[in-house]
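=== RUN LOG ===
request id: a7f3
mode: sequence -> structure
chains: 1
length: 267
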Amino acid sequence: MELRHRALQVLCLAHPDEKAAATLALHAQADQCSIAANAPTPPAGQVLPGLPERPVLLHHTAVKRRSPATPQGRAVLLHAIAHIELNAINLALDAVWRFDAMPTTFYRDWLRVAAEEAQHFGLLRDILRSLGHDYGDFPAHQGLWTMCEKTQHDITARMALVPRTLEARGLDATPLIQQKLRQVDSPDALAAVAVLDTILREEVGHVAIGNHWYRWLCARDGLEPESHYALLAQQYQAPRPKPPLNEAARRQAGFTDTELAWLLYTD
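=== RESULT ===
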């Protein structure tokens, strides 16, 4: 089996269960896979990524938020996080198949990320089902994939602006979500807190992988990482994170004090 070709095939799958299961299976078989030098060609007419019929996708400003104080509100919240995790599978698989001329560890790193995101999706979906709902029951948005499309021809921009910018926002948001769920103190809310502990721990590693490959690419191309990041953020209109930042988690993921100071700076 050729790893990059199979990653593209899995990315094209529309059904969430099939995509998650195929991602985990590919990761389990990764050591037996070859890695092609050139990216495979997507099937003619294939829209990337493959998407299920539900949920309905809206602009991010049209997706309503609800208080987690009610079971319905917790279901909406967990659905939103599950959607992020499913998107994260797609983002990682896209990095595996799309970008040529990278070390073998690059492809294996992002396949591992995809597999862990698939596990996160399953854990969240279990709790969502315990609340009488399932993935697809509520509207969602595609903000993460929009940046993926913008950076499809620039691997350095992709590493800078997807894992270490958009996905890194989860490092800041997760502890705040957990705090609200602890206040609810219901069995499902506490189960969600435990799942989010796992997600936060592993997401630190995912952002660290993004930081590593961003800096690797900058070193390869003779770019200064911190100043080049500011240029990329401006060029692609990447959002600044909203405070408070989880500075401890971001440092663990490889952000420098200079980078944190720049992220916290507001003009």
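=== NOTES ===
The two ends are 51 Å apart (CA to CA).
DSSP finds eleven helices and no strands in the chain.
=== END ===
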